[in-house]
Design brief:
By secondary structure, this protein is mainly α. It has one domain. It has 10 helices and no strands. Helix 5 packs across helix 6 and helix 6 runs antiparallel to helix 7. It is globular, with a radius of gyration of 18 Å.
Length: about 230
């Protein structure tokens, strides 16, 4: 089983390396962040961790959902289900690869905008966690969607809600009900965690617990969807 998983992972790496859109999704957050931060007449602006969250969502969520939807459209999904390797392990392998690609996009954003600034351990931890969470959410959307069109639309909506929620949440304190709702979004919590991690400080326990619950919820939902699809023969 290990050899088959290794072979499948190698094939995924080759396929992803040939995918031009993958490189666009990896490079786009770094390019946009650099352009926006240096386009002001006042020169470069302070680095915002919103760009790291943008990289997580653009590369992790969008790439993972799009890649899995493509697998289903091409019929690879059915072939994978017939393989002797449990589909959960295959998802773990593919998700791990995509999470590493997402982490690479985050590191590129950081390097382009912070130069030789040393990377703190908390920043690396929360960057990796955010990459895993975004990738898991993308895989869930890709697996649960009935078609490539609906999956693409859903992943775009989810990305916009999460990113715009993180952007607008700080300015909505005058609206307690709306601010309180947005405060529990994983993107908003990730920004809070990443802000402190730039100074080498870990987020409060409550933030870490809620982020962990988000990841567990996404993984549990993925398992339920897979079980339903096997039962229904989808």
């Amino acid at each position: 089983m290990a050899m088959m998983m290794l072979a499948v992972s190698r094939q995924w790496c080759r396929d992803m390396a040939k995918n031009a859109m993958l490189w666009v999704m990896v490079l786009l957050p770094a390019g946009l962040s650099w352009a926006v931060m240096h386009a002001s007449s006042q020169g470069s602006q302070p680095f915002s961790t919103l760009w790291l969250v943008f990289a997580q969502l653009m590369t992790g969520l969008m790439l993972a959902s799009g890649h899995w939807l493509e697998e289903r459209e091409q019929g690879t999904w059915q072939a994978l289900r017939l393989s002797p390797v449990p589909i959960g392990w295959l998802l773990f392998a593919q998700g791990g690869l995509l999470a590493l690609v997402t982490l690479g996009a985050e590191l590129l954003v950081f390097a382009v905008n912070r130069g030789a600034t040393p990377l703190t351990l908390p920043l690396a931890v929360y960057g990796l966690f955010g990459a895993v969470l975004a990738t898991a959410l993308g895989l869930l959307i890709g697996i649960a969607s009935r078609s490539a069109r609906s999956g693409s639309m859903l992943s775009t909506i989810v990305m916009l809600v999460l990113f715009l929620g993180a952007v607008t949440a700080p300015g909505l304190k005058s609206l307690p009900a709306l601010h309180g709702g947005l405060a529990w979004l994983p993107s908003v919590l990730s920004v809070q965690a990443l802000d402190g991690s730039l100074q080498g400080v870990y987020a409060p326990l409550s933030v870490n617990v809620v982020l962990g619950l988000w990841l567990l919820a996404v993984l549990a939902a993925t398992g339920l969807v897979l079980r339903r699809q096997y039962r229904d023969g989808v």
